[in-house]
Specification:
The strands form four sheets. A six-stranded mixed beta sheet has the order 10-9-11-12-13-14, with helices on both faces. Strands 5-6-3-4-7 form a five-stranded mixed beta sheet, with helices on one face. Strands 1-2 form a two-stranded antiparallel ribbon. It is flat and about 60 Å long. α2 crosses α7. The protein has two domains: 135 residues, Ubiquitin-like (UB roll) (Roll), CATH 3.10.20; 133 residues, Cytidine Deaminase, domain 2, CATH 3.40.140.10. The N terminus is likely disordered. The protein is an alpha/beta fold.
Length: 298
């Protein structure tokens, strides 16, 4: 992994493609009058993840994403699918440099080179060829698959106060720089048990934002994320819970509702799942023992 981190830094300075925002001109109709003004949209482009191992090259997924933190997205996706288990499994991450591709297309293809001398099970990736920014691979995974992959029950702790939980959405919103510019991005944020924001990733897709967050933790050597809280904008789905489970996250919060399968995952694997976290209240769907209610509160 010593080759990966310098590349992450280098690509930020040298990218020759559209960034996370796309400039457009829009016609605004208000009060029966029309005016033209500039606007910014969240960029959505395809990204192909290719695996390089033993001289072979294989496309394992194509996802619609917002450009930015692409290497973290690829690493987090592969970790969440159980292909890589440590940073050392990845020898190198790079953009495609195929001379037959135009510059913009090259930066939409990420090559992940696996370290030689290790065995990798690619079967879990057979169901992933295309994933959308909206809902990933809906309905194609199951609790049984998670059990077969050996995902452990999340251990007890930490305990987080209700006041800390109340404070998380405001901190997430304040850190959403791209959302301020575009109004069209989801976010996944990582907090410690005291509610301090550690890092945040944005994307047009909730599951992509979560992959970027987990990929950051993997490449930084911070996994598992015990004693941490993840907050996602929007709703929590099976995939969000799956990704947080593989990363060892004990508390998952969402601004909106959870799906029924997300609740099933949380209850079966010991995750605290919070939903509808807004307006000074929230619902706890599983793992209430990690939420501390101050004396005198209902």
């Amino acid at each position: 992994m010593d080759q990966v981190r310098p590349m992450l830094e280098k690509r930020t300075a040298n990218r020759a493609r559209r960034g996370s925002k796309t400039k457009v001109r829009v016609r605004v109709v208000e009060g029966g009058r029309m005016r033209v003004r500039p606007d910014s949209l969240a960029t959505e482009e395809p990204m192909e993840i290719r695996l390089l191992s033993g001289g072979a090259r294989q496309t394992v997924a194509v996802t619609m994403r917002t450009p930015g933190a692409d290497f973290e997205l690829a690493a987090g996706f592969l970790y969440g699918e159980g292909l890589v288990k440590t940073p050392e499994d990845i020898a190198k991450i790079s953009y495609c440099v195929d001379s037959d591709l135009d510059t913009e297309q090259q930066y939409n293809i990420v090559n992940v080179e696996l370290r030689a001398g290790r065995e990798y099970d690619l079967r879990p990736l057979e169901r992933h060829f295309y994933t959308s920014s909206a809902c990933g691979v809906c309905g194609k995974a199951s609790l049984e698959q998670l059990e077969l992959r050996g995902c452990p029950i999340v251990p007890p702790g930490p305990e987080v106060s209700a006041q800390t939980v109340y404070s998380l959405p405001g901190k997430l919103r304040e850190a959403q720089g791209l959302f301020d510019a575009t109004g069209g991005l989801h976010a996944a944020a990582l907090f410690d048990a005291e509610g301090e924001l550690l890092t945040l990733r944005e994307d047009v897709g909730r599951h992509n934002a979560t992959d970027k967050l987990v990929g950051w933790a993997l490449l930084e050597g911070r996994l598992p994320l015990a004693d941490h809280v993840v907050l996602v904008s929007g709703r929590s789905s099976f995939e969000i819970l799956q990704k947080c489970l593989t990363a060892g996250v004990p508390i998952v919060c969402a601004i909106s509702a959870p799906s029924s399968l997300a609740v099933d995952v949380a209850r079966q694997f010991g995750i605290t799942l919070v939903g509808f976290l807004r307006g000074g209240k929230f619902n706890v769907y599983a793992g209430f023992e990690r939420v501390r209610i101050e004396e005198g509160s209902e």
